[in-house]
Design a protein that fits this description.
Elements: E1 18-22, H1 26-37, E2 43-47, H2 50-59, E3 64-68, H3 76-90, E4 97-101, H4 106-115, E5 119-122, H5 127-138
Parallel strand pairs: 1-2, 1-3, 3-4, 4-5
Helix pairs in contact: 2-3
Length: about 160
């Protein structure tokens, strides 16, 4: 699918949604960057692993997170559990986390949901499916939500 600027994507200007995409594969990360470059309505950060994702999550408020499941050292389920722990500790709103995977069986799906993930996106990432997930999970954002840097303190 060729991406055309879509009036249905939320944001633009100062209140555009900030999205985090976590992917450990270099080629997949470059593909994601190319897809998102055409979506000017969004601010997107791409993390190469779970540790970088947690560092970025501590620095910014994200309205949506796409999380690769299979990553070395800290997988997507572990990262999501830590994000949920931090949200609870800091009294923050629940950020939707979408699992990104080539295949997810029923047992994996259940583990993702138990960890606090909200949805699933199949690899290879299809632009149309990606846009639908973004719209679905960001359309009801409060007007005053910001994607500006924040200061958080964690143990």
């Amino acid at each position: 699918m060729t991406f055309q600027k879509s009036a249905s994507l939320p944001g633009g200007g100062v209140n555009r949604p900030r999205i985090l995409f976590v992917e450990d594969n270099d080629i997949s990360r470059e593909l994601i960057r190319r897809i998102f470059r055409r979506m000017e309505e969004l601010t997107v950060d791409v993390a190469k692993d779970g540790m970088e994702a947690l560092a970025l999550h501590q620095q910014y408020f994200y309205q949506l997170i796409f999380m690769d499941l299979q990553m070395p050292s800290m997988n997507g389920i572990e990262v999501t559990r830590e994000i949920r722990r931090r949200e609870k500790a800091d009294g923050l709103n629940h950020t939707p986390v979408i699992a990104v995977t080539a295949y997810v069986g029923e047992e994996d799906r259940q583990r993702c949901l138990e960890a606090g993930m909200n949805d699933f996106l199949t690899k290879p990432v299809d632009t149309e499916a990606l846009v639908k997930k973004i719209i679905s999970h960001t359309r009801n954002l409060p007007e005053d939500e910001t994607s500006e840097p924040v200061e958080r303190h964690h143990e």
